Amino acid sequence: MELIHMLLQKLISFLSFDPPEDGNQYRTAQGTGHDGRGRPDRRDGTDRRDRTDRRDKHETQRKHDEKPDRERIEARRKTRSRLKVRSGSKVRSGLNKMEPKRLRGVKPKPGFGFVRPLVIERSPDASSAQPGTLPSAISPESYLDILTFETSSEDFHPEDEPARAGKCRRKGHLHAEKANKDETSQDEAREDEVKPLTNDLDTNLEMLKKILHYGTNADVVVREFDIPTEPVTKAAIVFMDGLAGKDAIDFSILQPLMLIAHLDDKEGTLNRLEAVKRRLLPGNQITESNNLRAIIEAVLSGATCLLIEGSDIALSIETRQWEHRSIDRPSAEMVVRGPQEAFNETLRSNLALIRRRLQTPDLITEMIKVGTLSRTGCAILYIEGLTNPQLVDEVRKRINESKSDHMQDTGILEQFIEEKPFVLAPQTLSTERPDRMAAFLAEGHVGILLDGSPFALVVPATFWSLLQSAEDYFLRWPFGAFLRIVRTVALILAIFLPAVYVALTNFHPEMIPTDLLLAIAASREKVPFPTVIEVLIMEISIELIREAGIRIPGVIGPTLGIVGALILGQAAVAASIVSPILIVIVAITALGAFAVPNFNMSFAIRIYRFVYIVLAAALGFYGVAVGVFVQLVTYVNLKSFGIPYMSPVAPHTRSSGDALFRYPLWKSETRPSYLKPQQKQRQPKISRKWIGNSHWGKVGKSKNEKGEGNGQ
Amino acid sequence: MGSKDSIGTREAIAATIYFLSAKLLISFPQHMAELGQTAAWIVPAISFATATLGFLIIVALLRRYPGKNIVEASEEAGGPIFGIIASLGYFAFFFATTIFSIREFSETVSTSLLPRTPLSVIMGVFIIATLVAISAGLEAITRASLVGMPLIIGTLIVLNVLLLPQSNFDTIFPLFGPGIGKLVYNGIIHSGIAGEIIFLCIIAGQLNESDKVQRMGIVSLLVSAVFVVVSTLNYSAVFPYPLSLHISYPGYEASTLIYMGRFFQRVEVAFVFLWVISACIHLALSGYTSAVIAKDMLRLPSHKPLLPALAILQFTLAFVPSDVPQTTHIDFMVVKTYSGLLLFVVPLILLLASRIREGRSTGRR
Q1: What is the pLDDT of residues A366-376, one digit of tens each?
Q2: Which contiguous run of DSSP H or E holds residue A221?
Q3: pLDDT > 90: what percent of chain B?
Q4: Å between B297 CA and nearest CA of chain A
């Protein structure tokens, strides 16, 4: 085995074009050129070297970079001598020039496989440095290496590997699990690393410029200036053009610092920053940070970072101001009666819209970054003391453990956090209405918002909640209940009507009343296709019109309606492609699908409809009935964030009956018990206390006084 | 959040009612007429009453072994050999029930909905659908029962109400048919027609409120008895004895007689649609129960590996009876006749054995 292992390592080293220096080191992931999943390895020495070369090239091209090249080379040399590579117990200093730069400060962990996690070994000098400061000898380049390096603080236990391998029987599974573990450890390491600034402004700026690709990246603005103290204090601001408000920077940062600054010379270096913060910056939100990652995140989100000579702390000043859409009317969840505001693409505005409706200090907004590249802000909303903490933990865990490079919409996030991706039923509820989100939060649900997405997610979702509309509650209860019944009928029609038509005409014509049967037969006389083909032609046509209607440019949108109506309504019948009765069937089906308030549910229904058409064509009502049974079993077996999908019907749990039907609001005294909220009671048992106390009469007086039932 | 199977009281009762009542959809009333003649409805009443007594005996046995189901309790009480024999008996009952039910439901579908479709296709689709449900687990099946409960209740109520114009209750006389003695004898001997109540004792360990098994069982037996007795009575009134001996599917035949004006005609298809769903639930329950008993006997961690083998066996064995009369005869006159003895007498023996053993051990001390 040892021999095979060695031979394989030789082969991999050879393939990686990375000449090994001494036989027992660096023949791991650094040399393979792949990260174990077939992707080019970013840790690969050659790749890294190229990137560094490019960065150096840009560096030399920058005219305004005043630091002489010789100095930087000297600093880099010093750093190299301090960051030593250790392998096993041996400490090796100095590096071969052929050796990739990526390898510095890295040792392969002992363990299994050829792709091994990497660990940075800092020199004693570096590790002994005071927290919050960087050893002066570490150059920006090497520091950047450390920052961008994927490190792992976890110990790797080769003895655990066989057990783990035993669990994962499939090879691919094992591979994927290992890759996932590596990625997780890398992310943890990135999060955990707190990289401090130095007291030297030039060094700090250098690091920031490197990371932000200053020079290449036209959006990055670095403005260096002097604060008029005696002696002059050098300072600089860094911000992203387009994300930060220029007026705020000019009048609230630069003007006070450059024109009206009169800092007392007696104040020490550390107090200078404090004085700037306390006396000179009128910005309403200022955050201190000595962590590179935090500073960069702030700059990338639109804040302005102020760096001052002699201070190892930077100030992130709130200057976020970018173009965004104003709050508009809902486009997918319109109501006649009720609020007419919808979420937009700005997370802060969306949170404000919700908070305005839930003015309680217990409404908690937890912020998480999702997407390794996009670093999109994700907000988890819940009400402390009401929402089930286990549910919040589950949501937090799933979002934290969803790893992808780019998550720009809740539609993408939803696919990462849902339980069963292969079931058609939507397992989260998306809404663009802040009032609806507030109502769900008040019930004990958890809300998820993503920066840049005008749709928020509500979890857990139940089947019944996907058939409900915000308007159900804004109308008087009989009207709301009626709407729910109409919607349920619409759902049934949208799924089953074409299938029932196929089953009846093909297998059970005896069920059709004689007159209707004769009418159908007469209308189908000239149609050459079997019923199922006829139905499929029409359903596919409807789907085409629907899809085209969404994709078509707005100017020619009305044309589509005319074309669609002509094709479906007249031409198809006149050409004897379909029978007139089928037009009615398909039109009712389409209307039924449109009446379903949830967009995702509507999609599911459209697909289910085709499945049922096929079942009906093959086995008639029997096929449809078996399909219903399988769908029923699938739905009752489904869970959304651990909550049964068909709650509160199956399993039966205590609730205020707000599922298929809607009862009077004053009777809805409890929150849904399937959510296991910390506060079960929504309102007191007697919520309309005025009854009996009203000076207008004795409405309900006797009941209320006795405290019977709901007392209403 | 929670991932363990948990069966609520309502779900368990709904599933048991399905299990006990779905036989109404097949040839059960015909065989009751065979046994009770004009008093066909009295036979299931007596059988259900006897089964209730038997159920109480089983619950008494279960109480001696808290947290265990009937298979485990039988092995504890009767020792490994007798326990295995008892478990084999339970397995044979549920497995046979599944086989004959598949055949009978498939024949019903073939007769009423798909006369030109091969029986094997209908049977295969039933088996695939039930396999999906059994794979999903007991939680899914019982919840599906709860959601589908209004279907079977609604169907039976609507059917019985709509049949009232066709009913002639003079035909149920003489009230005691062949005589009280014969009725009681037949009712007791055929107590196996409510033998599915043991299902509750098999899933006892998975119930949220396992201490309420007795109450659940009695409620299920009572509700099912009402459905079965009323429906059998109504069928007897629609198809008087001896005509009832020649009607294989009285439920289906009766639904064809429903007349609601010119527009609504031949509504039996709608009823069959609902019955198919009920049949699927019934088959899933019986298939699951037999698989779980087999799993417990073989001491396997999961019942899922057994499913393909059991499904193939069911599919094959369901074709063994040559025709529908033979199938129903074996089911009701053999399986349901002698199963009562096995299902209710064996637990009584086990209970006595357990008590005697306990008495001996107390005496020794």
Answers
A1: 999 999 888 89
A2: strand A220-227
A3: 36
A4: 27
Tens digit of each residue's pLDDT (9 = 90 or more) over B169-196: 888 888 888 888 999 998 888 888 888 8
The answer as to whether A546 is a domain residue is: yes
**pLDDT digits 0-9 by tens, A297-314:** 889 888 999 999 888 889
Token pair for A546: 């629907």
Candidate ranges A46-55, A142-151, B102-111; pick with highest mean pLDDT: B102-111
Looking at CA atoms only, how far is residue A217 from chain B in angstroms? 46
> For chain A, give me the number of helices (H) and strands (E)?
26, 16
Give chain B's domains with CATH numbers: 9-355 (1.20.1740.10)
**What's the CA gap between A430 and A597, in Å, rounded?**
11
C-alpha to C-alpha distances, A336 to A307, A471, A661, B279, nearest whole angstrom = 53, 8, 20, 45
Kindly give the pairing relationship between strand A90-92 and strand A85-87.
antiparallel
Contact indicator for B78, A580 with CB cutoff of 8 Å: no
Q: Are residues A270 and A357 in the same domain?
A: no
> Residue B23 half-sphere exposure, CB side, CA atoms within 13 Å?
28
Q: Which domain holds residue A531?
A: 486-644
CB of A626 within 8 Å of any CB in chain B? yes
**Bigger pLDDT: A164 vs A686:** A686
Of residues A153 and A684, the one with the higher pLDDT is: A684
Same domain, A307 and A353: no
Last residue of a domain, one of A461, A477, A511: A461
How far is residue B153's CA from residue A72's CA, in Å, rounded to a whole number? 85
Q: Answer yes or no: do B276 and A620 touch at CB < 8 A.
A: no
DSSP A325: P
Q: Which residue of B has its CA nearest to A676?
A: B1
Which chain B residue is nearest to residue A618, measuring alpha carbons? B117
Computed over its alpha carbons, how large is the radius of gyration of chain A?
33
Domain count, chain A: 4
Inside any domain, residue A335: no
pLDDT of residue A67: 47
Same domain as A270, residue A377: no
Given a contact cutoff of 8 angstroms between Cβ atoms, the answer to whether A347 and A449 are in contact is: yes
A173 shares a domain with A91: yes
Inter-chain CB proximity B269 and A622 less than 8 Å: no
- Report the residue of chain B nearest A629, measured CA to CA: B277
Q: Confidence class of residue A129 from pLDDT cuts 50, 70 and 90?
A: very low
Q: What is the mean pLDDT of chain B?
A: 87
Q: pLDDT exceeding 90 applies to what percent of chain A?
A: 33
Residue A268 inside a domain? The answer is yes
**DSSP 8-state class, residue B7:** B
Residue B358: the pLDDT is: 76
pLDDT at A460: 94
Q: How far is Cα B273 from Cα B279, in angstroms, rounded to an integer?
A: 10
User: Which comes out higher in pLDDT, residue A690 or A345?
Assistant: A345
Q: What is the pTM of this model?
A: 0.76
Say whether both A163 and A310 belong to one domain: no
B25 touches chain A (CB under 8 A): no
Which one of A622, A644, A666 terminates a domain? Answer: A644
pLDDT recorded at residue A264:
57
Q: Hey, how many other C-beta atoms are within 10 angstroms of the C-beta on A384?
A: 13
Pair A78, A47 in one domain: yes
Of B125, B136, B141, the CB nearest to A619: B125
A604 with A637, same domain? yes
Task: Count residue pairs from A and B with Cβ separation < 8 A.
Answer: 113
Do residues A548 and A587 share a domain? Answer: yes
| Residue A664 within a domain | no
